[in-house]
Amino acid sequence: MIISATIHPTTIQEAAAILREGQICAFPTETVYGLGADATNADAVLNVYQAKGRPRFNPLIVHCADLAMARQLVVFSPLAEKVAAAFWPGPMSLVLPMLPDNGIADIVTAGLPTLAIRIPAHPAARELIAAVGKPLAAPSANPSGRLSPTRASEVISGFDGQVPVLDGGPCHAGLESTILAIDGEAVVQLRTGALARDDIAETLGMPVPAIGEGSAITAPGMLLNHYAPKTDIRLDVISPEAGEAYLAFGGEPVFDGPMRNLSPSGDLREAARNLFTCLHELDASGATGIAVAPVPFQGLGEAINDRLQRAAAPRDPVAKA
Ligand code: TXA
Ligand code: MG
After folding, report:
1. Which residue segment(s) compose the domain that 141 sits in?
2. Does the residue 216 lie in any domain?
3. Mind listing the pLDDT tens digit for each residue in 224-246?
4. What CATH code is carried by the domain that includes residue 255?
5. How far is the CA of 60 from the centre of ligand 2 (A)?
6. Ligand 1 pocket, 59 CB below 6 A?
7. Is 115 in the pocket of ligand 1 (CB under 6 A)?
8. CA spacing 20 to 30 A to 77: which of 11, 179, 184, 225?
9. Within the chain, where are the H helices?
């Protein structure tokens, strides 16, 4: 790996200066690291697509410092207000109708009339957006189709040191935000994520259907994202084979090869936080494959299993994020 002399910002002000100049800069959020650009600057956003090798028709999430900034970009129905009040700042992205002439570069939404938006919980992320004074478009800070980064070091190695990164320590949640689309009073979950669907439904006091579960909302712009390590993945494995690496969940399995345990106590929150870093580490272990233990589907297990299934799926050259 070639690490060039990219200067990494060490303060929020330094990172804000890079972004104000129309350059890209990776920054921490509570979910995963984002690769940020001023969402009102089409050239800056183009640099994000180019750095990631991301298809242009896959729209980006816009990050706001506060609700006042968000209100200048999208229309909030009463249900959207309720969801925002309950979950922002936090790991929840809302796909809402855009206000006309809101200044967001067309390339951010890939031409859709809706915008995915969130207010992150990580204080450094909100301070950074406020210091830039503009909403930031930010996909996960990984080359398209690769594992999302939950540490600054993973961003640096993912882009061979070519992208400046503001280091905010390991991400607390470790999975991308949950994405809900809201159309009037209808809601659908477009992507599983760091907030479990059961918990969202309980807080809102209404069912939150998964995409395809009979909601009237369809999802143009949603692609079958892959979160793939370079090594092949095998799921639901109790006994890994010689030469493989093992990603365990719960207990103290005995295995004579590279092994990480997502959560020895079987805690899904801890497993979510550790998922991408464990996969990054086992990917670098030189094993012939990564065998993954079964993870229960309830709560955050829905999102963990989603990411694992995508990582194990045959690679599709187009559907990536
Ligand atoms: O936690 C996260 O959400 C992280 C951090 C950095 O905030 N960001 C992230 O972004 O995961 P990204 O680009 O990897 O995923 C964005 C997803 C894509 O699946 C995209 O298709 C979807 O959001 N999306 C964006 N705008 C949309 C829209 N208007 N309608 C439907 N889906 C949209
Ligand atoms: Mg991504």
Report:
1. 12-176
2. no
3. 556 678 899 999 999 999 999 99
4. 3.40.50.11030
5. 9
6. yes
7. yes
8. 225
9. 12-20, 42-52, 67-71, 78-87, 106-109, 123-132, 152-158, 197-204, 268-283, 301-312
